[in-house]
Design brief:
The protein is mainly alpha-helical. It has 12 helices and no strands. The protein has one domain: Hypothetical protein af1432 (Orthogonal Bundle).
Length: 189
């Protein structure tokens, strides 16, 4: 994992929790924090277990401008979602965490815990929008508003329909500066 991507993991966690509490009114922001922290667990697994393939997938995502999970599937034959949920099940993590790890790139496949999966998906999209992930595909605010996670949350939590995706991404800009300071502090030691 690179220093620049490392910032995505700890930052999606508080962003998921803060967003779920303030904007969405999700009743369990602590659960959203933990799900945001663990959602890319499989990336850590893959970077250790198959580092050459992991780097090749990262390079393919960058050069082909495709989602990282698609590049993983093309290069490795599996994704960080699959290796992450395998480890989550071995560790006997709660179902809602395993579901988020497994389906944060494809919430239509989630059969349970949809709001939590959607919150982490939305947070992950917002970080992609700001270039803070392995993905080189950068969704626009309009694409974020059309994503199944946003639509699902609008149906589940009516307050989401009053949130402007442009403002949502602008709010994140202030947060990104704080994340950069955190990552710098971590890599100083």
């Amino acid at each position: 994992m690179t220093r620049s991507h490392f910032g995505n993991i700890p930052s999606v966690a508080p962003w998921s929790a803060g967003t779920s509490r303030k904007k969405i009114r999700y009743p369990e922001p602590e659960r959203a924090y933990l799900a945001g922290l663990l959602h890319d667990l499989g990336e850590l697994v893959n970077s250790i277990a198959v580092p050459d393939l992991f780097l090749a997938a990262s390079e393919r995502a960058r050069t082909q401008n495709e989602p990282f999970y698609a590049a993983e599937m093309a290069v490795m034959g599996f994704t960080h979602c699959q290796s992450g949920v395998y480890l989550a099940e071995r560790w006997k993590l709660p179902d809602e965490l395993a579901d988020t790890i497994a389906h944060h790139h494809d919430i239509e496949q989630a059969k349970r815990n949809l709001p939590l999966v959607a919150i982490v998906r939305l947070s992950d999209l917002l970080f992609s929008h700001r270039g803070l992930t392995y993905d080189t595909y950068v969704p626009s605010p309009a694409e974020i508003a059309e994503d199944s996670a946003w639509i699902m949350l609008e149906g589940e939590y009516p307050g989401v329909s009053h949130v402007n995706p442009d403002q949502f991404t602008a709010d994140m800009d202030a947060f990104v500066g704080e994340v950069g300071k955190l990552v710098d502090a971590i890599f100083r030691y």
